[in-house]
Structure formats: C-alpha cells, structure tokens
Amino acid sequence: MNTGEKIKALREELHHHNHLYYVLDKPEISDYDFDQKLKELQKLEEAHPEFHDDNSPTLRVGGAVTKNFATVTHEHRMYSLDNSYSKEDLENWEKRIRKQVDGEVNYTCELKYDGASISLTYVKGEFKQAVTRGDGFKGDDVTNNVRTIRSVPLKLKGDYPEKFEIGGEIVLPYEGFAHLNAARVEAGEEPYANPRNTASGSLKLQDSSEVAKRPLDCLLYGLKGHKLGLKTQYESLEKARSWGFKVPDEAILAKDLSEVLKYINYWDVHRHDLPYETDGVVVKVNDLHQQEELGHTAKSPRWAMAYKFQAEQVTTHLNKITYQVGRTGAITPVANLEPVQLGGTVVKRASLHNADQIQKLDVREGDEVYVEKGGEIIPKIIGVNFKQRDPNSKPTEYITECPECGTELIRNEGEAQHYCPNFNGCPPQVIGRIQHFISRKAMDVEGLGGETVALLVNEGLIGNYADLYELKKEQILPLERMAEKSADNLIQGIENSKNIPFERVLFALGIRYVGETVAKKLANHFKNIEALEKASKEELEKIDEIGERIAESVVEFFSSEENVKNVERLKGYGLQLAISAEKLANQTVKLKGQTFVVSGVFSMPRNDLKKMIEDNAGKVSGSISSKTSYVIAGENMGPSKHAKAENLGIPIISEEDFLRMLK
Ligand SMILES: NC(=O)c1ccc[n+]([C@@H]2O[C@H](COP(=O)([O-])OP(=O)(O)OC[C@H]3O[C@@H](n4cnc5c(N)ncnc54)[C@H](O)[C@@H]3O)[C@@H](O)[C@H]2O)c1
Ligand SMILES: [Zn+2]
Asked: Relative to the alpha carbon of 220, which ligand is closest?
C-alpha cells in the first residue's frame, strides 16, 4: 500500500469507528487503540500535506447528528480536545503556548469526565435547551431527555447572566450502572458494556420517561456567552457552581506545569475512588483573554489539553473472594484472579476494598472482571463484564466472622470497613500491631524486620510489643537465619528505641485512627500518657481536629486492661511516655485560637515554621478562608493566594513579624 492509500484506509477505518462509537454507542475497539490509529493518521498527514482533506477524522469532531431529534445549529461551536499521553506532550504544548501569549500563564486542572458531551442553554435563569455536540456545528435537541436528569437545575439562583450556554458531560455513575445492569440481567436482557456508552445511548432514547429511569448525572465545566463578566476559567467554575450547577470541586488552579503534573499523578491513582468514570485530566489556560488569543484549530481549542490516563486494563476470571485481616482488625476483601499479564507484571490478586465496593460493582465469584493498574498501588477491579455472567450466579455474601479467629465481625455506623474486635487474640492483628510498632515512622527499631516479628510471634517468644523489651539474645540466636551479629543488632535496636519521643511512641501503640498527625496533637495536648489515659470522650473531642471517631477509639483502647498493662510495662522499661522537659520549655499557648496559612519561601524550612506555630498552640491550615487569622508570606508567595487574602481582608505578615509575635 502506498502512503496515499494508507491514509485513505486509515480515514475510512476511523470514520467507521466514529460511527460505531458516537451514533450506535457500540464501539468495537478500545479508546486507546482508536487514539493510536488517529495519531498514526495525524503523523502521515503532517508528513504528506498533499493528501490534505477537510473531512479527515483528524480535523473534525467525531460525532454526528442522528435525525431522530430536531437538529439545532450551535450558537457557539462545540469542540473536541487535543490529547496527550506523557509529560513531554504537555511540555511541548506549554512551549507552544508561551510563544503565543504574553505574561504569566496559569492553568485550571479539571477531571475529564467520561460521558457524552452536552451544551445547555439558560435564559433568564431558566433551563431552555440541551443539545448534543453532534458534529460540533450542529447537534441533536435532547432537551426533554436532559430535563429528567436531577442534577440539571431547571431554575438558577444567584446573579446569573441573562443568557448563556454551559458545556458539560452527561455521565452514568458506577453505582447506577451496576444497578441498571443487574436489573437487565435479571430480566434476561443483555447488559451494557460500560458507563460511557450507556450514558450516551440513554441520551438518545426517544421516550423521556425511559431516560428518567436511568440514574444519569450532568457534570459541568464551561461557560459560553457574550459579556459574562468573567476573567478566568477557575472563576467561571466557581460562578457556575454558585448558580446551582453540579461542578465537581476537584478542579484546582495550578501556577505552573509542575503543579499540573502533581494533580495528574494524584488523580491517576485516586480516580477510582470517584463515583463516576474519568479518563484523564483537562488542563486549561486559566486567563480567558489568553484563551481568546490562542483560539482554536478546526477541531480543538489551543488553550486546552487533555491528559489521558494510561488505562492499563485487562479482563480475567475471578476465581475466589478471600478476606484479609489487617493490624487494626480491618477486613479487606481480596479478589483471587486467574493470573494475567498487566503492566509488565503478572497479577493474581486485586483489592476489592470493602463490602460497599463489592456491592457497588456487583462483583461475584466466577465473573469475568476488568482489572486495572494505576501508579504504584495494587491492581483494582473496576468492573464486571456482565455479558459473560453466569445467569445462575448469586450476589456475593459478605463474611460475618473473622476468617483468622472466628470472632463475629463488627461494622460501625458510617464506616465502610468491617473489623474483627478480637484485638489481642487475632493472630494477624497481634503480628501486624508489633510490625507497626517497630516500623520506621514509629519506634524505628533497627535490626528488626516484619518477617522476624512474625517469626518471634509464631515461635511464642513474644505476644505483644511490650514483650520485645524482655527478649534475650539466647532466645533469638537459635532462630532461623539469626547469627551472633544480627542478634546483637536486634537487641541493641530495641534498646535504642527507648529514646524515641513520646509522640512517636503514641503513634506506635497502634490505636485505631491515631496516625502520625493525631498522635502529635494528642502528645502536645496531654503532655504525658497518664493524662491521655484519663481523658474522657468529651474532653478528647474538645481538642481541635479530634472528632468523635478518634475520641471513641482512644477511650476504647484504654478501656482494655491488656492495653493498659502493656503501656505500664513500656513505662517500666524506660520508654518516653511524656513530652521531654526541653520540649515543654519551648511551648506556649501564645497563639491559641489563631489559624495561620504559610506560603512562600522562608529563611528556615517551612516545616520548622509550622512546628513553631503548633508548639505555641496555633493552628496551621493549607488554604486561606475567612477563618484564617494571618497569612505568613515568604518570598515568591503565589499571586492568587495574595489576592485571596487581600479580598478577605486577612493580614499578611512577614516571617519577622511572626517571630516578634512569639517574643
Ligand atoms: N473506541 C472507539 O471506537 C472510539 C471511537 C471514537 C472515539 N473514541 C474515543 O473518544 C475520543 C474522542 O472523543 P472526543 O472528540 O469527545 O474527545 P475527548 O473525549 O478526548 O475530549 C473532548 C471532550 O471531553 C469532554 N470533557 C470532559 N470533561 C471535560 C472538562 N473538564 N473540560 C472540557 N471538556 C471535557 C468534552 O465533552 C469534550 O467534548 C477518542 O480519543 C477516543 O478515546 C473511541
Ligand atoms: Zn480475628
């Protein structure tokens, strides 16, 4: 095939897949494969401009009008987005932008909602019309269908403009999707393949009362109109939200590309915690003037770029669901899979998180499941291939007893996780708690690792962390792989841990919900373990940022005789169970009741500054709000923070001003 024929064939192939995807909602290849083919075509076209064609899929928005609805010409054209898959792609995009606009460029980062593109028109605060993207110039009038979606406001509140359009995405959240499919399977109908295509298909149903039965949602992201009086994309999101639109608040303002990348990396890992599908992040030049300067290509705005997550996804068979018991007794359901190659490793197990997740996805033993890997975390099951479900399969019944010790499981109200309450008798809890105790951020016992802890417990040499301090060299020498030197190191490591400060000992105790930060708070507040032991739930709850859940957990911990005995023993061995005199001397309550936001670069490390605030009973907060007492500004403080503080009338002080406050 020569190049011309190759280009022609690719175009035809892509037209065909566009039709399957946008019109029939039944794609036959993955999005990734589609995008690769599109990229290939793009490259060929760039290298061979002689084959230019205005109708090429590289130059046109992929959809079409369906003729099943009234056709509406868009007043404001609707565009697609350019895609990037790597840091380099984004950097190149940024370079291009910088050449075209003057001044500083900030970005709004939003999630890329995976559904069907829609434009809503509002006049005098009332919902008037909803039109699909279609081919970008014209779309289908689906007003009656969209009216049935509860999150689409029919009447707006606040100071909205007289007339405007707002762009958004109609999505089908996971939970609704699973329900919908379960009902279909039960009724002997074919289940839907994925939420995106189902959302898009639902929108095109002829009977609005059918649409009303689909739990669709509408997420909005872009205002269009004349004289809206807006300056930035971020501001327009806030405004739209204030008028009553569902604008997800995961969006952030990023001052440069490194912040953009941070956002991307975060959501690449955390996107599965969202109730709906996202396939990436959309980065937009924040300033609307700059956006205007940059303009559009035939297909996409130049001021925006989608970053698509690499969805490394496979399907495999779920053989069995088993349950793991963690050190705090929390139960995690685990999917045992038919081994499958994914992202360079063989995956055999995937987390199912908790009972809600199993229910949400409606996962059952024997299902074909979609497994995905994001970042460093263990793979997740993100859905079920309902088409291949055995019609006789039964919903998963969650266990009621601990798989390790047989104790009846507990699930507190409002909590996702079940747990085993047999704190001191459940083997994985006993081992896990000691492993946590010796870990680096806790007692940091050198020469002792997690496997040795398990060995010591299984050999009956220790049963809790206090027992560590009774260990003798002669006892551990006979253990497997233990030599003279490693035994000495172990004993020395345990001895050295007696100098670890109180707050870390408190963290090491492994009280549920008492993480590093909470441990620090409690240590600073109570100063010693006796005071903490005596504290009532009410007293604990009075402390800043200590909620009911933590307070209950602390009280519960000290209500166990066994725990109190262990703590007494630790005290007896000489562990630090009170704040040191030296540290006490540096503490005051001078900043009590005051909240500080620290921003910029200072003469001392920022963490030291924060520690000084906390040591003097002040509070550190990450973002400026009306509750902020002072903003301590260092060099290079971000302009948006500066503006926000000024707007709210919050005093901005220097490092020297702050130090003077402490004098
Ligand atoms: N598998 C297939 O056969 C097949 C066929 C055609 C298209 N596709 C997929 O569809 C993609 C093309 O679709 P497209 O043209 O809609 O582009 P796109 O989905 O890559 O991006 C553009 C759309 O993103 C949406 N969007 C979601 N969140 C947004 C936000 N916060 N801000 C702005 N826009 C947001 C908008 O509706 C916009 O129209 C392809 O890259 C491919 O992945 C797949
Ligand atoms: Zn148990």
From this structure: 1
Is the domain covering 502-584 a CATH 1.10.150.20 domain?
A: yes
> What pTM did the predictor assign?
0.56
Which residue puts its alpha carbon closest to atom 38 of ligand 1? 80
Q: What would be the CATH architecture of the domain defined by 312-388? A: Beta Barrel (2.40)
For ligand 1, atom 21, the nearest C-alpha belongs to 81
Give me the catalytic one of 112, 204, 239, 373.
Answer: 112
Q: How far apart are CA 210 and CA 265, in angstroms?
A: 39
Q: Are 132 and 117 in contact (CB under 8 A)?
A: yes
Question: Residues lining ligand 1, CB < 6 A?
Answer: 17-18, 20-21, 27, 29-31, 34-35, 61-62, 80-81, 83, 110, 112-113, 117, 133, 169, 221-222, 282, 306
Q: Which ligand is nearest to the CA of 404?
A: 2
Contact in structure between 419 and 331 (CB atoms under 8 Å): yes
**How far is the C-alpha of 172 from the C-alpha of 175, rounded, in Å?**
8
CATH topology of domain 71-308: D-amino Acid Aminotransferase; Chain A, domain 1 (3.30.470)
Q: 528-582, pLDDT tens digit by residue?
A: 999 999 999 999 998 877 888 899 999 999 999 999 999 999 999 999 999 987 7
- Residue 107 DSSP class: E
Task: Indicate the annotated binding residues.
Answer: 31-35, 80-81, 110, 133, 169, 284, 308, 402, 405, 420, 426
Domain boundaries, the chain: 3-51, 71-308, 312-388, 427-499, 502-584, 588-662
Q: Is 590 a catalytic residue?
A: no
Give the span between the Cα atoms of 591 and 598, in whole angstroms. 14
Surrounding ion ligand 2 within 5 Å at CB are 402, 404-405, 407, 420, 422, 426
Assign domain 427-499 one CATH number from 1.10.150.20, 3.20.20.70, 1.25.40.10, 3.40.1790.10: 1.10.150.20
Q: pLDDT tens digit string along 45-98?
A: 999 999 999 889 998 888 888 778 999 999 999 999 998 888 999 999 999 999
* Displacement of CA 28 from its chain's centroid (Å): 30
CA of 508 to the centre of ligand 2 (A): 21
Binding residues for Zn(2+): 402, 405, 420, 426
Query: 3-class DSSP state for residue 541?
Result: helix
Into which CATH architecture does domain 588-662 fall?
3-Layer(aba) Sandwich (3.40)
Q: Quote the percentage of the chain above a pLDDT of 90.
A: 61
Concatenated DSSP letters for 47-76? H-GGG--TT-TTTS-S----SSS-EEE-SS
Is this complex's ipTM strictly greater than 0.90?
A: yes
Pick the CATH number of 3-51 from 3.40.50.720, 1.10.357.140, 2.50.20.10, 1.10.287.610: 1.10.287.610
Q: Which ligand sits closest to the CA of 308?
A: 1
Read off the pLDDT of residues 223-277 as tens digits, 9 standing for 90 and up: 999 889 999 999 999 999 999 999 999 999 999 999 999 999 999 878 878 889 8
